[in-house]
Amino acid sequence: MRKKISRIAFALIMILLMVSCKNTKQKLQEFVTTYNASAANFKADNVTLTTARGYINDNKIELRFETGLELNEANKVKANTDFPALLKDLINKDQNLKELIDEGVEFHAYYLANDNTVLLKEIVNKQTVSDLLK
Fold this sequence. Notes:
With 134 residues, the chain is α+β, with helices and mostly antiparallel strands. It has five helices and four strands, in the order H-H-E-E-H-H-E-E-H. It starts with a helix and ends with a helix.
């Protein structure tokens, strides 16, 4: 009886270990799926929609933040303060995002005007994340 319980416990432990040991590409795919599924609940000033797209072979995730802002100099200046703060908040709240950055995934984040032109682009990776979190 004891042997049987030990074998079952061992099998369960092995299954848990196999499930929890994901590689970076699997984590990247999972992050994109989860991010897009929860995008409807995302709240930030001026952001009307956000989406993520993963590029497995490039080890990159593209984050798009669509806004209701027009493309002009005043909004570009506003984006220079609002967008880094938004990214900092996102990084601090999402442990999976931090793990992916630590594993070498680059995040290309775009803050877009209402006509989908780029107000500001940030690349977040191991080298730039510390500057962003200051």
